[in-house]
Design a protein that fits this description.
Elements: E1 11-26, H1 31-35, H2 38-46, E2 50-51, E3 55-59, H3 62-66, E4 72-77, E5 79-80, E6 88-101, H4 107-120, E7 123-135, E8 147-156
Antiparallel strand pairs: 1-4, 1-6, 2-5, 3-4, 3-7, 6-8, 7-8
Length: about 180
């Protein structure tokens, strides 16, 4: 089922599987440097690949990122045509998702909203998170109107034992998971 998601509204959706190239880096808390990423661009150029979509970043630990601790991230993008990438993953999972509108310096408020929603709705959040930069430094200059889709992997809590929901993913069609 497809749904329209409003900014600030949290929902659980299945993120469609996708095989994509990535590059792992240390997060410096400089979003502009992360999004306009010269090492990533140079890597794609070295394998004759072209970017065809939004910049997508998977953080190894959402909680460490929120606490401004050192954290690794993987930068992904959909590649057009054949790819000679030696670092690819088949991605797909369920995630609690929410759109963040505005400057990336305020993004933790949206993460907090996701964690609160998950607790109230019987979900357990996993370690990793993904940010898909819908509008960012590549497309507009005003950071107050940036749009970032945030997803934290989740599993539904059940009686006794929590149900495992697959993780690793990208943001593609907007689908709501209904039981």
């Amino acid at each position: 089922m497809c749904a329209k998601i409003k900014a600030g509204e949290v929902s659980v959706k299945f993120i469609q599987p996708l095989t994509a190239c990535y590059l792992e880096q240390d997060f410096s808390y400089d979003y502009q440097q992360t999004i306009i990423n010269i090492p990533w661009t140079n890597y794609l150029k070295s394998i004759d690949a072209e970017i065809t979509g939004a910049v997508i970043v998977e953080y190894a630990s959402a909680k460490d990122k929120m606490a401004k601790k050192p954290v690794k991230y993987r930068i992904f993008t959909k590649i057009s045509g054949p790819c000679r990438c030696s670092r690819d993953e088949h991605l797909g999972r369920y995630g609690a998702c929410c759109y963040h509108i505005g400057n990336h310096e305020d993004i933790n408020r949206t993460y907090e909203r996701i964690y609160e929603w998950a607790e109230l709705n019987g979900y357990e959040c996993g370690e990793k998170s993904v940010e898909r930069y819908v509008t960012d430094y590549w497309t507009i200059r005003n950071p107050n109107v940036f749009v970032t889709e945030i997803s934290v992997n989740v599993k539904k809590k059940t009686r006794g034992e929590a149900k495992t929901i697959p993780y690793r993913g990208m943001f593609l069609p907007r689908q709501i998971y209904n039981k």
